[in-house]
């Protein structure tokens, strides 16, 4: 039977009833990870401006500053626009630069949420999609996710993977 698991026991969100079906989750700018990432982008922007207007800066230093500036803001854009949704029997991951990936629920054996580090509350997450007969596909999520919303969504995916009887059993 398909299952959704987490790397550690998930917390229950007091604001969201357990039986509520969450069909979409997205990364948010208003999160600790979003604030840290925005601060880093602002520092890189300040360094970029200083390098561009400072006398005696070499062309190589300017190229490095441009690469850091563009890379930081592109990563920020991609991180803030990540979204996972459940449309019918298809799980869809979207981001501005990463494109769209679709996973039919009938092909999935498991969806595994893994905490990648920092600390238990605020870390970088990844979701692994395991399909029968295919290599598992791992999607690294950016730092702008709120874990409680992501876990609520994955509980809904677990119920959808178990089929319509899962919704009637819990009521």
Write the layout of secondary structure elements.
Layout: E1 3-6, E2 24-26, H1 32-53, H2 59-80, E3 83-87, E4 90-95, E5 99-104, E6 108-115, E7 125-131, E8 137-140, H3 147-162, H4 165-170
Parallel strand pairs: 1-6
Antiparallel strand pairs: 2-3, 3-4, 4-5, 6-7, 7-8
Helix pairs in contact: 1-2
Summary, kept brief:
The protein is an alpha+beta fold and 171 residues long. Helix content is 39%, strand content 25%.
Structural account:
By secondary structure, this protein is α+β, with helices and mostly antiparallel strands. The chain has two domains: 3-27 and 82-170, Roll (PH-domain like), CATH 2.30.29; 33-78. The protein has four helices and eight strands; from the N terminus they run ββααββββββαα. It has helices spanning 32-53, 59-80, 147-162, 165-170; strands at residues 3-6, 24-26, 83-87, 90-95, 99-104, 108-115, 125-131, 137-140. The chain has a four-stranded mixed sheet with strand order 1-6-7-8, with helices on one face. The protein has a four-stranded antiparallel sheet with strand order 2-3-4-5. β3 (83-87) and β4 form a beta hairpin. Residues 15-20 and 166-171 have low confidence and may be disordered.
Count of DSSP H/I helices = 4
Q: What structural category do the secondary elements indicate?
A: alpha+beta
Give the number of DSSP strands: 8
CATH architecture of the largest domain: Roll
Poorly predicted regions: 15-20, 166-171
Average of per-residue pLDDT values: 82
Number of domains: 2
Largest sheet: 4 strands, mixed
- CATH topology descriptor of the largest domain: PH-domain like
CATH class of the largest domain: Mainly Beta
How do the SSEs run, as a string of H and E?
Answer: EEHHEEEEEEHH
- Give the overall form: elongated
Any idea what the radius of gyration is? 20 Å
How far the N terminus sits from the C terminus, by CA atoms, comes to 21 Å
* Strand order in the largest sheet: 1-6-7-8
Strand content: 25-35%
Range of helix content = 25-40%
């Amino acid at each position: 039977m398909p299952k959704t698991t987490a790397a550690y026991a998930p917390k229950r969100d007091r604001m969201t009833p357990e039986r509520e079906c969450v069909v979409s989750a997205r990364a948010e700018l208003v999160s600790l990870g979003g604030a840290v990432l925005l601060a880093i982008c602002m520092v890189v922007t300040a360094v970029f401006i200083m390098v561009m207007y400072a006398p005696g800066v070499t062309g190589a230093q300017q190229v490095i500053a441009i690469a850091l500036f563009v890379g930081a803001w592109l990563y920020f854009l991609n991180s803030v626009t990540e979204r996972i949704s459940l449309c019918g029997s298809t799980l869809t991951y979207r981001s501005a630069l990463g494109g769209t990936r679709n996973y039919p629920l009938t092909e999935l054996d498991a969806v595994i949420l893994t905490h990648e580090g920092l600390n238990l509350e605020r870390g970088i997450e990844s979701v692994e999609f395991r399909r029968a007969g295919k290599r598992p596909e791992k999607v690294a999520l950016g730092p702008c996710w709120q874990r409680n919303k992501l876990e609520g969504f994955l509980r809904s995916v677990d119920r959808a993977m178990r089929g319509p009887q899962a919704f009637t059993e819990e009521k």
